[in-house]
Amino acid sequence: MNSFDAKHWTSETVAADLERAVHEHRLPPGIKLGEDELCEAYGVSRTIIRAALLALSHRRLVELKRNRGAFVAQPTIREAREVFEARSLLEPRTAHSAAERMTEADLAILQDNIRDEHIALDAGENGRALFLSGQFHVEIARIADQTTIQTMVSELISRSSLIIALYWRRRAALCETQAHHALLDAFADHDGPQAEELMKSHLLDLVASLDLRNVTQPPMSLREALNK
């Protein structure tokens, strides 16, 4: 993030900006989200910052600790397993439905997403690549035209970003690009069963790329994380 002087920030846009910083691993799990620093960074009041942090706490991206403040959440190993179990239940069937409903416009959106993910990886922007990888999955849920499941998948993807930040052990946690290409082929063929099986395999591979042991990372300063 650069200067925000020209932008009018609301609690919703601040929350969205912080969420993206979490997705891109610029705000690591455990870092304190000091109200004073955030007020200065965004040029807004404490009221707006507190509303943004409360909204993120509802999405379980932020933990509000009494008398201590707000911190980016640190999912436990149990929570990590629960998140990916939930994804394994929801996303394969969602991929099946998306394949049956796929339009040329939808396919183009997914192709653009994969292209941008490749560009980010080639540039060494792993955080942005991770964000785009998550968006690929969210788009699939949107295409499936299942609003409730789309909301659930979006929240699970957000939690997955924190889990990957804590527990990844190899670059494959950035969603294997060939897995996304294979899914794209199934979508282009409107092959629901194949898309479902590919998504199951993809999520298993993603879990295999994680080292689900307690690992802590020393948090950087909030100002450094937000590029202030």
Helix and strand layout, with pairings?
Elements: H1 11-23, H2 35-42, H3 46-58, E1 62-65, E2 69-72, H4 77-101, H5 104-122, H6 126-143, H7 147-167, H8 177-188, H9 192-208, H10 222-225
Helix pairs in contact: 1-3, 2-3, 4-6, 4-7, 4-8, 4-9, 5-6, 5-8, 6-7, 8-9
Q: What does this entry look like structurally?
A:
By secondary structure, this protein is mainly alpha-helical. The chain has two domains: 11-74, Arc Repressor Mutant, subunit A; 77-208, Four Helix Bundle (Hemerythrin (Met), subunit A), CATH 1.20.120. 66% of the residues lie in helices and 4% in strands. It is built from ten helices and two strands; from the N terminus they run αααββααααααα. It has helices spanning 11-23, 35-42, 46-58, 77-101, 104-122, 126-143, 147-167, 177-188, 192-208, 222-225; strands spanning 62-65, 69-72. It has a two-stranded antiparallel ribbon. Helix 4 (77-101) crosses helix 6 (126-143), helix 5 (104-122) runs antiparallel to helix 6 (126-143) and helix 8 packs antiparallel against helix 9. The longest helix is centred in the middle third of the chain and has 25 residues, at 77-101. It is globular and about 55 Å long. 39% of the residues are buried. The model has no long low-confidence stretch (mean pLDDT 87).
The biggest beta sheet is recorded as:
2 strands, antiparallel
- Please work out how many helical segments DSSP would assign: 10
Low-confidence segments:
none
CATH fold-level topology of the largest domain: Four Helix Bundle (Hemerythrin (Met), subunit A)
Q: Strand order across the biggest sheet?
A: 1-2
| General form | globular
Query: What's the alpha carbon Rg, rounded to whole Å?
Result: 18 Å
- Secondary structure class reads mainly alpha
Mean pLDDT: 87
**In CATH's first tier, which class of the largest domain applies?**
Mainly Alpha
- Please count the beta strands (DSSP E, at least 2 residues each): 2
Helix content: 55-70%
**In CATH terms, what is the architecture of the largest domain?**
Up-down Bundle
Q: What's the order of the H and E elements? A: HHHEEHHHHHHH
Strand percentage: under 5%
CATH superfamily of the largest domain: GntR ligand-binding domain-like
Number of domains: 2
End-to-end Cα distance, whole Å, is 7 Å
Subunit organisation of the chains: single chain
